[in-house]
What we know:
The protein is built from 7 helices and 3 strands, in the order αααβααββαα. By secondary structure, it is mostly helical. It has a single domain, classed as Arc Repressor Mutant, subunit A (Orthogonal Bundle), CATH 1.10.10.10. The chain has a 3-stranded antiparallel β-sheet with strand order 1-3-2. β2 (88-92) and β3 (100-104) form a beta hairpin. α2 packs across α6 and α4 (61-68) crosses α5 (72-84). The longest helix is centred in the N-terminal third of the chain and has 24 residues, at 15-38. 12% of the residues are buried.
Amino acid sequence: MSEQDMYRKKKEDPSLKLFVVLSKAQRAISDLVKDDIQRYGLNPTEFGVLELLYHQGDQPLQKIGEKILLASGSITYVVDKLEKKEYLERIPCPEDRRITYAAITEKGRDLLHGIFPDHWKQIEAITSGLTDEEKVEAIELLKKLGTYADQQKEGS
């Protein structure tokens, strides 16, 4: 196959176009969500930790990073900041001294309770460019793409 034929084949392949469009959409959506969260004095990582604790209860510090896709070294920093703001507290595990849990405080719960109605509306506004049916279809397609990408990573 000539170099020109390879170039033509690549131009016809939608893979790169999908990657570019997906990346641009993700960045645009993330920027809008970040702006919304910053109105409450939080960054997206702090919000992610609080949201996790709010919805799923106390979590071992070691597991938080996995659940919100954050490097383990950054967890301590984020938890320290949230603890200083009195939004969460550390609770030692009585059975295993190596494990410490993060627990949302009443102040943190009140904050998220106040944030969620407006934040939900903002997410709805951001995604209103799609119908509900298109959203469901996009969810399924992106799950499929993500699962396949994870399998590729594990196979490496």
